[in-house]
Amino acid sequence: MINDSLNINDKNYNRDKMYEETIISAIIIFIVLRLLVTQNRLERMPYLNVINFGVAGVITLMNPSPLGAVTSIIYFIMATVAANAIAFSIDKIREIEHDTD
After folding, report:
1. Tens of pLDDT, residues 11-57
2. Which residues contact 59 (CB under 8 A, 6 or more apart)?
3. pTM value?
């Protein structure tokens, strides 16, 4: 029944999904390289955020099943919590730098 609604066995569905996975994976690899090159801690944090959300997207595309959906939802929620922690850290670092100036 799930195969009928999602057309998982359809070759066009699998090919389109493969393009999407490739594009998201390429973006993640590019961001990882930028993360490694960047020296400033404040500039690194948004890159970590992009990597987290990209991984959530790849998990969703790799597992078109109910368990894959649950896994992706949990990872997405945790990535959102991490994004909030990153935003809080950026704010605190800016506050500290502002106080020292």
Report:
1. 555 666 678 888 888 999 999 999 899 887 778 878 888 888 888 88
2. 68, 71, 72, 75
3. 0.63
Summarize the confidence of residues 61-66 as an average pLDDT. Answer: 80
CA triplet 53, 21, 54: central angle to 5 degrees?
10
List Cα–Cα distances, 72 to 13, 14, 17, 53, in angstroms. Answer: 20, 19, 16, 10
Q: CA–CA distance from 15 to each of 22, 28, 45, 55, 61 (Å)?
A: 11, 20, 33, 20, 12
Count Cα neighbours of 16 within 13 Å in the Cβ-side half-sphere: 8
The helix-helix angle for 41-62 and 11-37 (nearest 10°) equals: 160
Structure tokens at 22: 């490739």
Alpha helix segments (H runs only) across the chain:
2-6, 11-37, 41-62, 66-100
DSSP 63: -
